[in-house]
Amino acid sequence: MLEISNSFLFQTMLKSAVFLGLSAGMLGVFISYQRRSIEINALSAGSFVGTLLLFLLSSLGLSISPYIFSQVDKHIYSFTGSILGILIMITILNILYKTNRLHPHIIQSLMTAVLLGVGITLVTSIRQAGGALDSGIDVYLFGETTSLTDEEFYFLRIITVTVIVLLLLFFRRLRVVIFNVDIAKTSHFHTMFYVHLINVFVVCLVALSVKLMGVFLAVSIFLIPAVTARLWSNRLFTITLLSGFFGGLGGGIGAVIAGNISHVSSGISITIVLSIMFFISLLIAPYKGLLGVWLRGRK
Amino acid sequence: MLRTYSSKEHLEQLNVAVKVENLTVEYNGRATLFNINLDIPSGVLMAVLGPNNSGKTTLLKTIAGINKPSAGNVYIYSRPTHALKNDIAYVPARNFVNWDFPINVYDLVLMGSYNRLKKVEIPGTKDRISAREALERVGLDTISKKSICDLSRGEKHRALIARALVQDARIYIMDEPMIAADEESINIIIDVLQELRHKKKTVIVSHYDFVTIPRYFDMVSLLNVRLIASGTTEDVLTEENFEKAYGMSAGMIKNIRLYMEESHARNK
Fold first, then answer.
1. CB atoms within 10 A of CB B234
2. CATH number reported for the structural domain that contains residue B166 in this entry
3. Is B243 inside a domain boundary?
4. Do B88 and A169 count as a contact with CB atoms less than 8 A apart?
5. Which domain holds residue B100?
6. Residues of chain B contacting A178 with CB distance shorter than 8 Å
7. ipTM of this predicted complex?
């Protein structure tokens, strides 16, 4: 165990999970109050399908022009596919929000179901065909912290630190924009700048979290810490800090478990740890926990 | 002694604070406002009245610069709305606010000072004093640490108005600030509106209760996608205009008129 814990790979894996948990937890608070929780599922599914399609296209290109396509690392395809998938998904969702009267949650759920269906069909086809592509697919289903390349880990560190710094720096204005966009507009804030800033963070963190957490569980690292933190406080700033703390702690413990127990993927272990934190908070949190509510009721 | 500007001549003497020219606003290809022309004098209390889906909120939001016109223009003190800074304080309708948002009353009210601050600047002592004064003005100073989700409906209205007061704007635009509020809250809100007019601020309020309009407001605009009439309450609140706006039968309007007269007599 000590040997594993001191290895470079394990250290990278642990740091990745902690950094991602910290930033996704903080961002998750803003996403949940924008009522975009289900959208994260749709974006994860978009990332999943984008990655698979670019994998397939790259293998097709490899058979047509081996020289050009063999020069590019397959991880570049996966990350580019992931980002493209999310961007296309955001565009489709925005078009659907504007062009019909369905509730956004219905649209998000519908798109998630459709894309997961497409994704699973693609996975089945790739598995049946076999070959080199088959080996990397499990990573996208349930996540694997060891799947990050050095470049992706470097990107993850830059993105997560940027997300944390900018969220804290623009906290006051972001709070107004999320509380009521009309008030923000009449206060002459550049509301679109803040909305797009959060969108950029979402695109980058979802693309990274799909690899670490898997397509089905990526949403948990954004939302479980935010919901857990809400049980402890009624002030947005405290909730944001607590959510980052829960996300980082859950990510770290989950990564340690996944690193030490074989056949446990990081997405599953991190989600289980975050869920345990949530249920403990539900019992003992002083603000909205069951014990706190009961004690206040007795007074 | 609630109203001060009762005559048409008096209103005409005032400068124009808000000028709406040929305004049309469309949503999903359907006009929610059509060809509105309206002058709102400076320093008056004006009500916007009309049935559901008549475009009251759309008009207020367009004047505030939140909605973009499909055609026409809005000028505030002769300048287009996008060129303004800190001139308009907007109070959204209670239903359009996320009351589960984790924030206490004091922090909500302090938000009114953010437009004066730079992007990353922290509110100073002056801003905090201003927030405390606004809280006292609306009678919420004793519950300033309370979470906004625990407020009553009337207190929610008052908290939103207090935030707008901290903004210290020249024009106040309020969307249904008294709907479903308790009597104490309505009285406090009316007092605040009168005080704003006393300070020569222009206040535009969408209001649901046409019975109380003659008591509280200097002028009224009656709306149903098109502007039916605008002017002093005596000129606008006529049977003919009501029939155009609400499509009500003459008998029903007569009953409303009787009720209004009785109500006025009681209030005198």
1. 12
2. 3.40.50.300
3. no
4. no
5. 13-237
6. 101
7. 0.84
